[in-house]
Amino acid sequence: MAEKAGTPTLSGVPGAAIRDEMDDASGISNETDISSAAGLAGQRWWVSYATRILVTDAVAVYVAVFTAYVVRHDVAGITRVSGDFSPSYLAVSIVLMWAWLFALVAGRTQDRRLVGVGPTEYQRVFTVSWQLFAAVAVVAYLGKMEIGRGYLGLAFPLGLVLLLAGRFAWRRWLHRRRRAGRYQSRVLVVGHEGKAEYLVEELGARFGAGFGVVGVCLPSGEVRGGTVGGVPVLGDMAEAAAVARRERVDVVTVVGADSLTADTVRRLGWDLEGSGIDLALTMSYRDVAGPRVIMNPVHGLPLVYVDEPHFTGPKYVIKTVADWCGALVLCVLLAPVLLVIAALVRLSGPGPIFYRQERIGAGGQTFRMLKFRSMVVDAHQRLAEVLAADGVESVGLFYKPKNDPRVTAIGRVLRRYSLDELPQLFNVLAGDMSLVGPRPQIADEVALYDRKAHRRLLVKPGLTGLWQTSGRSGLTPEEGIRMDVYYVENWTLFGDVLILARTAKAVLRGEGAR
User: Fold this and answer.
1) Do the beta carbons of residue 115 and residue 185 sit within 8 Å?
2) Which one of 270, 422, 436, 494 counts the least CB within 10 Å of its CB?
C-alpha cells in the first residue's frame, strides 16, 4: 500500500477537495471576443455564480435579522436599545445587515478559489460571522448600548444556518453544472513530465473542484510534442506565460515547484502579472489540509511549515461532546425507525435482533460493535463458502462479498441504505466510537496494516467516514486507507459536518452500498 513518493497536491485547493469534490473539465465561453487574458477569468462563470451567492447571502442575512427584529419588537415590546446611546432596533437591524454583508465580501468568503470545494468556504463564513457579532458586542459595550441578548442570540445562529444552507445548495447546483462540462477553471500545468502527468491524471479523475487541464509545458529538454496524461504538450517552460495567455487559461499550476529553480518560478510570476491568471504552486508533501500549513517568508524565502497532527487536546474534547450530543439527538429522533427495524429483523427469521462483533478501536483497544442483524444465524460458519465463491483465500482490507448468500431479504434493504449501522449510535454514546471517523475493522484486517494504515487507530472509529462519501464499497484498499489517514491527520469540525451531510445524501440514494 505504498504510494508514489513526491506526488503533488494543488496548493490552492483544500486537501479534501482532491478526493471529495473534483468536478468539471471543459472549456470556456467564446461569446465575447476578448483580446487579452486580463479580466477574462473574472468574466467567465465566476461572475454569475458570485452574484447568485451574494443574492442568497443577502436574503439569508435579511431573514435572520428581520426575524430577530420582529421577535424583539413584538414579544418584548421594545423599540429602542437601552443605554447612554439608544438607537432604534430598526436602525440597529439595518446597520447589522449591511455590516454582515460587507464582512462576508471583505472576508473573501466568495473567493473563486475556495467556493465549491472542501470546508474552507464554510469555515470562512462561520469565522467572519462570529467575528462580526463579537465586534458588535465590543462596540455595544464601549458605547454603553444594551442590545438585547435575545435579539443577537436569534440573529446570529439563524443567519449562520441560512448562510451555510445557501452555500451548500449553490455548491450542489455548481457540481451538477460541472458534471455537464461547464463552470470550470482552465488549467495549464507546468513542470517535469512525471509529476505533470500525475497531476493531470489526478485532476482528470475527479470533478468537484472544477479544474480542467488544457495542456502542459515541460522543460525544454523534455519537449517532444505529443501528449502527457492525455493532454497536449503546448510548449516549454519558457513559453508558459505566452501559452497561458493564448489558451486563455484561468490557472497556471507549477507542479513540483520545489524541484524547479526559484528564478524560473519567479519569472513566470512576472510574466503573468496583469493577465488575471492565477499562479498556483504545489509541494511534494501531499494530503495536508490548510490548518496545518503555515507559510512564513524569511528574507524572501517562502518557508512552508507543516504542523504535526495532534490527537488530543481541546478540539478533541469538542469532538467528543459534539459526538455525544449528536448521537443522543439522533437516537431520540430515530427511535420510531429503530423500533420498526427491530421488529422487522425479529420477524425475518430465527436469531437475535442485534449482531455484536469484536472490532478494533482507538489505540488498538477492542470493543463490541452493534449492528442490526442482516444475515442468517450461521453466517460465520459459512464464511469459507463465500470466500471460495468469490475466488479469494482470506478476508482482506475492506473486503465485502459481491453477492453474499448469507444476507436475509430484509438485510439487503437495510444494507442498501446503511440502516443496519444505526445501532452504532449506542456505541457513540458509550464512548467507543465517533459519529465521523475511520470505519472500525476486525482483528484479521488490522493484522494486515502497514505503518500508514495503523494511523487509522489514532482516533476513535466512526459511524461514517470519508470512504462512505467517496465511493464506499467501490474504493480500493489503498484509496480507503489514504482517505482515512487524511481524515485522522486533518480533522476539523466543519469537515465532520460536511461528511455527515454527504453521508445522508449517499444513504438516501443507496450509493456504493452492498
Assistant:
1) no
2) 270
Count of helices and strands (H, E) across the chain: 16, 15
- Give CATH for domain 9-28+184-306: 3.40.50.1980
CA–CA separation, 103 vs 403, rounded Å? 54
Which of 513, 466, 464 is CA-nearest to residue 487? 466
Q: How many CA atoms lie within 13 A of 387 on its CB side?
A: 12
* 369 in Cβ contact with 359 (< 8 Å): yes
Contacts of 249 (CB under 8 A, 6+ apart): 37, 186, 187, 188, 214, 277
pLDDT per residue over 414-471, tens digit each?
988 889 999 999 999 999 999 999 999 989 889 888 888 999 999 999 999 887 777 5
Provide the 3-class DSSP secondary structure of residue 425: helix
Residues 289-314: pLDDT tens digits?
Answer: 666 777 666 656 666 777 777 788 88
Is-contact 277 261, C-beta < 8 A?
no
Average pLDDT, the chain: 79
User: Is 77 buried (19+), middle (13-18) or exposed (0-12) by CB count in 10 A?
Assistant: exposed
Give all strands (DSSP E) within 138-247, no chain letters: 145-146, 185-190, 211-218, 227-228, 231-236
Residue 252: all three cell numbers together:
497556471
Domain ranges of the chain: 9-28+184-306, 45-179, 314-509
Taken as a whole, the chain contains a residue count of 514
H or E element, residue 90 = helix 89-106
Task: Enter the C-alpha cell of residue 458.
Answer: 489514532
> How far apart, in whole angstroms, are the C-alpha atoms of residue 506 and residue 484?
18
CB 183 within 8 A of CB 250: no
Which single residue is written with the C-alpha cell 473563486?
A: 112
